[in-house]
Amino acid sequence: MHHSVPAIPFSSKTKSQCIIIMSDTSSCSSPVSSNASLSTPPSTPPNLYQNCISPGAKWVVQKFGGTSIGKYAVKIAGDIISDYIVSNKVAVVCSARSGSTKSAGTTSLLLRAASEAVGKTRSTSKLLGKKLGGEPLTGLFGQSATTPSTPGTSTPLSRPFLWENISGSSTPNEFTSTIDIIRQEHLDAASEAIQDIDIRLELEDEITRDCDWLKSFLFASQVIDEISPRSKDIIVGLGERLACKFMTAVLRDQGVDAEYVSLEDVVPDIEEDLDSEASLGQDFYDRVAVAVGERIKQCGARVPVVTGFFGPVPGTLLKQVGRGYTDLLSGLLAVGLEASELQIWKEVDGVFTADPRKVPTARVIPMISPDEAAELTYYGSEVVHPFAMEQAIRRSIPIRIKNVENPSGHGTVIHPDLEHLEPKDETSDSPVRVHPVDDRSNKLPSAVTIKEHILVININSNRKSVSHGFLAGIFGTLDRFGVKVDLISTSEVQVSMAIEIDRFSNKVLDRLVGEMGKHGSVTVHRDMAILSLVGQHMRQLVGVAGRMFTTLGQRGVNIEMISQGASEINISCVVEGKDAVKALNLIHHSCLQISSMGVGRAGSRLF
């Protein structure tokens, strides 16, 4: 099925480059000619641009967040991906669509629908007499998810097997209203972003079928009043499927030959028990990286649009990785394709020296180490998922954080540790060049961050001896409640810990405090914040800790707790929530030496 598409939205410069390249068969691909021989049908519909096929072209993996997909899909297709495929082979990974916030995004709505489906008793008579079924679609989304694309086909997009809506109930379930919200949001987005009527109608049909499938799935779950962890993985994975199908259709509408790729069945046969709670090992990640790389290479010159959800894993994907699994897949794909760069596209210009919404003088950091990026992520700055960073960095693949609203900006590069880098030839065409900084005497911290909504619990032992028993009891209680501690400070008879209060309900927190009371007297401080100063080799930066605490004390900011990590990457303290923004600005000015004049330093890089 061939579609008519509007004029290709390349700039005149890009078009002229493509015209010149057409005369060189070893260079990048161009729009397929409509005058091709009838005996050898073209591998793509006419007038669609493809990935660069030059032997020297390298892969670039581009991961787009849900908010970016929700707000800037047309810009991503027309200004970013279209530009990069001129000289690169691009693989696109999409998170589930979001509106203005994650809390109102597709993933949150899917989790809400799942919770609404269980715990209610419904009549099952209609379900038990209903036959499950469904026929595979034809057309743009008709190809099997596990079938590689082949030249000469006009149906390069794939879709999962769908069920009929089997509920047969005239009374709407609570979760159906939530799914209808998801459906309508995607239909509205398709109507706004896609001009070609055939592409839009096919996408709308696909959205409706996927949402009907989810209603059937949740109705079945409601009958047995249970949603297993693996079922929850599948439910959440629908968000990436919808986003990738939407993005594929937008790319097609913008003149790019895109192929939807579902990775739900790509995980190789695993010997591990799928119900195992053990952490995933590097061997597992290596096998997945190879499998996804091989699958994407089967797309040929088409631009693959890849789901972040990659099927069943031991212990379930949400438990093992969390909602950042799309970042992880991007890292694994970069490894499998031996990409020159992994790009994480957001709505900010890169990693800042502080949150620019709270610190007006914050600056973009041109280059940062993986350790620094991981610390910033942990203490409140969303950079990139640590698992994704680990996979890319261990293969010396740089990660670049870029802004969809400013595609020409340099962004922030997370480069591999210097001691793990091989020397680079000056003629190398690597997108990142790292120069070691031997003189640390002038080095400053890289960034300061704040993590709010923190609860501090202090426990003083009732017994002034047997410290090992006291500490064992405290840590045992934390383990039973599944508490993740952000900061901890210990002595022989006292433990202070800071935890993120949003992770637990008030009821659970009350029970936790009650259990802690068995080991000693307990005091609780609510509405606190963790202030963290981050930089490489912090222990060797003489006077930084003194300057940090002196600055806070002189300006009337009380410090509840102090901690310096064994990693030498950060110095952290706990302050009252009402002083959080004030403390952030004070430390940003005094320790990073960035003033309102607009010139300052972060780490060893001069702005």
From TrEMBL:
Keywords: ATP-binding, Kinase, Nucleotide-binding, Transferase. Residues 416-427 have a biased composition (Basic and acidic residues). InterPro entries: AceGlu_kinase-like_sf, ACT-like_dom_sf, ACT_Aspartokinase, ACT_dom, Asp/Glu/Uridylate_kinase, Asp_kinase, Aspartate_kinase_CS. One of its GO terms (biological process) is homoserine biosynthetic process. GO terms for molecular function: aspartate kinase activity; ATP binding. Residues 412-440 are annotated as: Disordered. The keyword Acetylation does not apply. Transmembrane segments: none annotated. Its EC number is 2.7.2.4. The keyword Transferase applies. One of its GO terms (cellular component) is cytosol. Residues 533-604 form the ACT domain. Belongs to the aspartokinase family. This is aspartate kinase. It comes from Moniliophthora roreri (strain MCA 2997).
